[in-house]
Amino acid sequence: MSIFDKSAFKFSHQHRLFRTSAISSGQIVQFKLSDIGEGITEVTVKEWYVKEGDSVSQFDSICEVQSDKASVTITSRYDGIIRKLHYNLDEIAYVGKPLVDIETDALKDVASEEDVVETPAVSHEEHTHQEIKGHKTLATPAVRRLAMENNIKLSEVVGTGKDNRILKEDILNYLAKQTGAILPPSPKPEIIPPLPKSETAPAAPKDKGTKIPIPISKPIVFAGKDKTEAVTGFHKAMVKTMTAALKIPHFGYCDEIDLTQLVQLREELKPLAQIRGVKVSFMPFFIKAASLGLLHYPILNASVDENCQNITYKASHNIGVAMDTEQGLIVPNVKNVQVCSVFEIASELNRLLTLGSAGQLGTNDLTAGTFTLSNIGTIGGTYAKPVILPPEVAIGALGKIQVLPRFNGNGEVFKAQIMNVSWSADHRIIDGATMARFSNLWKSYLENPASMLLDLK
Amino acid sequence: MVIPSSLKNCFQLFYVLKISAAGFKYTANRGLILQSVSSDVYQNLAVEDWIHDNMNLENRQVLFLWRNSPTVVIGRHQNPWQECNLKIMRKKNIKLARRRSGGGTVYHDLGNINFTFFTSKKKYERMENLKLVVRALKGLRPQLDVCATDRYDLLLDGNFKISGTAAKLGRTVAYHHCTLLCSADRFILSSVLKSPYKGIKSNATPSMPALVKNLFEEDPTLTCEMVMDAVAAEYARCHRIDHHITLINPADETVFPGINNKTKELQTWEWIYGKTPKFNISTCFNMVYEQSLLEVKVDIHVKHGRIEVCNIDLPEQWLPPAMCNELEENLIGSKFCPSETTALASALLRICPQNYELHSKWSLLCENVMTLM
């Protein structure tokens, strides 16, 4: 927008003159707002697509104006640089009055006042529907196409076929007369006959000193530009969260879980789940098993204050499930898993997933988590190094389930469904042994789902 | 360069249509009647874009018939927060679209028919198009009292609006489109077209609310199919072309090269919300916290759909000033959108002092600020 308002007109005028005489060879052209039709004399400027100093080409959009329910895109008639915008947003612009000032290259042609219509010498209509002296020209579609491709008006060709039908030969004859040459009948690419042998391959290297021509390499031109944008909104908040997270001394512990029995159990439960109308994935089992483990190792469900002076053991197991959405990574949590059945966890998880994909999760669903599981395996990967989400002290990343060969108790190879888990924990309050024991317990519940029944709360 | 590509695209669509309009080729070049098989508003709006950008309408006219699944469509320069109830729309899965033409906000569902009249800029004539629709309706049911107003609306019985108009003018092509209420859900229409948001100050084009009625209420034997056919027949008669409706699939890249990019663009947040002219919200709301009523004043400036200025005035010391500042600072640059705000607020809660009272106050404040979005 112009920073020189009308009161500073004198200054802007001088400024323009200085530029014109000292630097550029272009002239300032006042581009007037052309007629919009329907007798409209004024419009409101609603959006500018250019600002002063931008360069524009002919037909580039300059601004959007509105008049009585009609939105009009005004395009440039000239190539050049925008020197002045005559209106601010929401101001009334007048038809016939200057809209923008453009500095054009004085030598270039300027488009006429009339709208330029991009058509070749002959438009479609002439080919398909022609009336010459009251008769329609007859020609097959192939002939019409040939005529169009060579910019020939069918009305000017004499037809020698039946009923004065224009034949392919007629078009070719017409062309020959026009250009004095015999043109190829079809637009197929010309087949270049191979050169006679004596001219082709370089002679067998009798003379080893012959130089091999070096190919001329053109400089590789890449027209892409770097793009910088501010980190805002949710991403900005994530920067803060992750910075705080990495202040926590992390240690990692990984293991492999044989889910063969769980896979079978889930298959058996599918019909029942279907009857109840809830989809049951593996996550509800992972979550419930984690909660059972936390009952034995409550320090993993705790929180420390800023200087690590006090530990708070949380009573509720609010287990978070990392979700990939349009916003990015968000972590809704299932509340009070310690009193929920696997089925209830599955229902709640479905509710959170549905809301998450619609972008409708509330703050209640996204806060007060105490422990997190991240099922990165659904996207891919085996082992990971998850980052603890403050104010929690532990997190688990689950890899994808792979079918791998393993040995059973009899030393036989069998097909096993293997998933990897990677835990991270706050080493200030959690030691490796605690994490390992928790992981073993969690693993045993999942490898032998019947054992979960014994401890199920 | 522009010339060969526009010709090529035009030829492709024209060539395909010529084959499917077998036997009508001599008139297909004077005019075309197209009907979309899709009820996806973004795909259908993309067809309008495609025809506007690619077809040569120097001596040709096109009529495009389309219907959409439940959607609210706002005009190019409108403010969705001012025009419709985004909360109800999110709950009921009603889409929001911003069209490229001007004008006001309308509700579409399968009981509403959209007509788009494409012409060269020189032949742009809205009243003629509306008279054509009126003639078609009267031809179908002579007793119908339908007329066009000087605001380019169609009224039933002189009182009820059954059609609204909007238009888009480009460099060489213009289109005029209008709605027609046949059997739309009026209950949902009136609930979604009422904005619950207060305190908005904006220069966006406002809509004029009007009493509406369906043609179906006047004559239950009328169906959308009958009306579409009648208008197509009248169009064919006026432009002396064959009464042949060509069905088109807006997702077909072979007929409409490049159309899927246009569809994608129309669905981006940057287009739908980001193109809202800048506006300010100056309002206050009450919060109840542990039996006390608190008054909160809010001043938010939104530009390109993102928060530029954010001032939240809370009762003194209710929340530590540092926390309130943290919220304001982080909202700046963020999309004016409840899901973005929820995610942001929840992430920030992780790094502030872990105190049940503070957390519940923060959550309460954020939930309330989100009701403005």
Radius of gyration of chain A: 38 Å
| N/C terminus separation of chain A | 68 Å
Q: Using DSSP, what is the number of strands of chain A?
A: 21
Q: Please tell me what the overall shape of chain B is.
A: elongated
Classified by CATH, the class of the largest domain in chain A is Alpha Beta
Instruction: Briefly note the CATH topology name of the largest domain in chain A.
Output: Chloramphenicol Acetyltransferase
Structural class estimated from helices and strands of chain B: alpha+beta
Strand segment tally of chain B: 16
Largest sheet of chain A: 7 strands, mixed
Pfam families (chain B): LplA-B_cat (PF21948)
Pathway (chain B): Protein modification; protein lipoylation via exogenous pathway; protein N(6)-(lipoyl)lysine from lipoate: step 2/2
Protein name (chain B): Lipoyl amidotransferase LIPT1, mitochondrial
Subcellular location (chain B): Mitochondrion
Task: Explain this structure.
The complex is a heterodimer of chains A (457) and B (373). Chain A has helices at 9-22, 124-128, 141-149, 168-179, 233-245, 260-276, 283-296, 342-357, 363-366, 432-447, 449-455, and strands at residues 27-32, 42-48, 55-56, 61-67, 70-75, 80-85, 92-94, 98-104, 131-132, 135-136, 250-258, 302-304, 311-313, 319-321, 323-324, 329-330, 333-334, 371-374, 394-398, 402-407, 413-426. Chain A is α+β, with helices and mostly antiparallel strands and 457 residues long. Chain A has three domains: 27-104, OB fold (Dihydrolipoamide Acetyltransferase, E2P), CATH 2.40.50.100; 141-179, Irregular (Dihydrolipoamide Transferase), CATH 4.10.320; 247-454, Chloramphenicol Acetyltransferase (2-Layer Sandwich), CATH 3.30.559. In chain A, a hairpin with a 6-residue loop joins strand 12 and strand 13 (311-313). In chain A, helix 7 (283-296) crosses helix 8 (342-357), helix 7 (283-296) crosses helix 10 and helix 10 (432-447) packs across helix 11 (449-455). By secondary structure, chain B is an alpha+beta fold. Chain B has two domains: 21-273, 2-Layer Sandwich (BirA Bifunctional Protein, domain 2), CATH 3.30.930; 279-372, Enolase-like, domain 1, CATH 3.30.390.50. Chain B has helices at residues 2-20, 25-28, 41-54, 80-83, 86-91, 126-140, 186-192, 215-218, 224-238, 259-267, 269-272, 321-331, 338-349, 356-370, and strands at residues 31-36, 61-66, 71-74, 95-98, 106-108, 112-120, 146-148, 154-156, 160-163, 165-169, 173-181, 200-202, 245-248, 279-289, 292-303, 306-313. In chain B, the strands form four sheets. A six-stranded mixed beta sheet of chain B has the order 10-11-6-2-1-13, with helices on both faces. A four-stranded antiparallel beta sheet of chain B has the order 12-14-15-16, with helices on one face. Chain B has a three-stranded mixed beta sheet with strand order 4-3-5. The radius of gyration of chain B is 24 Å and the shape is elongated. In chain B, 43% of the residues are buried. Strand 5 (70-75) of chain A pairs parallel with strand 10 (165-169) of chain B, so a sheet runs across the interface.
